[in-house]
Amino acid sequence: MLRFTSPRKGFTLIELLVVIAIIAILIGLLLPAVQKVRDAAARMSCQNNLKQLGLAALNYESANGYLPPAAKWSYDAGTVLGFDDDNPNPPTTRAQAIAQGDVNNSPGYDRHSIYAYLLPYIERNDLASRYDFTYQWNQKNGPNAPLIAARIKTVECPASPGSGSRTLATGGVQAATADYAPCTGVNPNIATAGIVASRGFYAGYFKNIYPTPQKATRLTDITDGTSNTIGFIESAGRPNLYINGQPAPTTNLLDESNPDETPSGDYLGAGFVTGSPWSQPRIQTKLTGWNSATNSYYGNCWVNCTNAEEIYGFHAGGANVTFGDGSVRFLTKSISSETAVSLATRAAGDIPGSDY
């Protein structure tokens, strides 16, 4: 008697395990490639954002004859560390500021960030048409309060954690954050600390102004050359403090970069960085270098060491910056202190190295 056997259906356990193992291997091979593509896309998008900012600053210069100010301060600032290049007598009272031409409808001082000036040049006329420079940037119930909560994608790096969702409560209002900052040069104390050779000039591409009529940097002021001078930098992840790629929620740092603070002044608060909203004047940055051994300012690390007023991006090996000619370059973490300082100053008369 003949017996007929039906064809086997399905897989044996061993065959299933082999298939699963093959799929796992393929996934393991593909995931890093997918991540690399994502990282490359984020880095390219970040570079494009910085390109737009660099061109916006140059378009502002074409229209006004000088670059946008890194920040407009008031009578409460201007006497610390030589932040003011041109005004030998910055105002110290509201009356003095108004006498020097300041227009101020706020009850106290009024300040503004570079991005308030650049709004028409980055296609945000919806904000520019309503922003009022005669009022403090974050005055509660003031005309600017509802505007500063608006996201501006041009100032957000997609590689930054929480990009597009970070806000900061300031003065009783919510403000959207930014991942890029205007560079105003180098803190002179870096030479005093013996990190670099003394130059005698430490101001950068962008300049802080004090009374409203004061003019910011003219291109003729950049005698080191626009192609050798950094404009905007990545300083990403704010308001959260990052050190060497990791959040630092328990670390307190002094504010070394802003003219309304002395070196022994304000702590930023554990785990936080000053100047995170796009609308906040304190977003301007004067570099100091980072000391990785002591986890403090004034050292030989200039890229991706901390986002506390330094160059910092969430890209492997370095961070993006714009130069004064509108170009965007990737600075590597291995950049030397002398080269970093040369690139961050506009008229020190030095020639930057090629180690970046």
UniProtKB/TrEMBL annotation:
Residues passing through the membrane, by range: 12-34
Domain DUF1559 as annotated: residue spans: 35-336
Keywords, comma-separated and alphabetical: Membrane, Transmembrane, Transmembrane helix
Gene3D superfamilies reported in the protein's UniProt record: Glycoprotein, Type 4 Pilin
Pfam families found in the cross-reference section: N_methyl, SBP_bac_10
InterPro entries tied to this protein: DUF1559, N_methyl_site, Pilin-like, Pre_pil_HX9DG_C
Name listed for the protein in its UniProt record: DUF1559 domain-containing protein
Organism: Frigoriglobus tundricola
